[in-house]
Amino acid sequence: MATDAASDVLTRDFPGFFKIYKDGRVERYWNTDFTPAGLDSETGVQSKDVVICPEAGVKARIFLPKIEGVKKLPLLVHYHGGGFCIGSPFATPFKVFLSHIVTQANVIAISVDYRLAPEHLLPAAYNDSWAALQWVAKHAGRQGPEPWINEHADLQRVVLAGESAGANLAHYVAVQAGANELSSLKIANILVIHPYFGTKDPDRFYQYMCPTSSGADDDPKLNPGADPNLKKMKCDGILVCVAEKDKLKSRGVSYYETMSRSSNGSYKVDFYETKGEDHCFHFFNPKSENIGPLMKKIVDFVNQDE
Fold this sequence. Notes:
InterPro entries: AB_hydrolase_3 (IPR013094), AB_hydrolase_fold (IPR029058), Carboxylest/Gibb_receptor (IPR050466). By secondary structure, the chain is α/β, with parallel strands linked by helices. The protein is built from 8 helices and 11 strands. It is globular and about 65 Å long. The mean pLDDT is 95.
């Protein structure tokens, strides 16, 4: 019986991320292990999944710690990593990571399941990420569609957070909030972990996912210093975390330097480097003794306004 030869012809291969075949089929190197929402018996954290953009099918997962009293809690808005093309807030590693932060920092978290490339080319992930913060802003005055946010979240203490590509998205959303004068919430802090802002040379991987981009430093999504709206960004502080052996470390250092110059003292920029570790080691090397200090730094940063 004859088979369609096109289904086996490889047209693109980005090792570690995805392959594309001649018939349009996408095969990812890393498959997400989905874990259901619900009560975590170990931490007492509850989670639920919500639809935030029905038109695009964008969802998010909300993590709620044990609630004691009537005090409102900071809201951490999280964008997951994965090179804009893999990963999900419904995956086990992100559940573990966010449950830890929610428990230790006593905050609410919402992690956005933005659309992935290459099926949804960039800037889809950027648009979804910005739409998610606008959805959060609808809860000002307890008027939003999600009761957990209405009842428990302090929208004057919002933390934007992400790792790798998610750190890129968190930064982008922060700039959009300033440029568009989103006044119904306040971005208190921005947590940038092992950020992905392309590479020194034109980034062909990014350019493939975003055909409108040069993949180089003239693209403000890859080089925040080239963004004319950068100075419109408002927050109280930024924490930039890098890893010594990460090939993206230099871009993270450059980001730290750019934001330090741009702040003009209007917000504090802090820097934290983990020695001897590689990119997002807290996911890929779960037994590392360096995870504890990194998580403490993150929790202390999220809690610094308490």
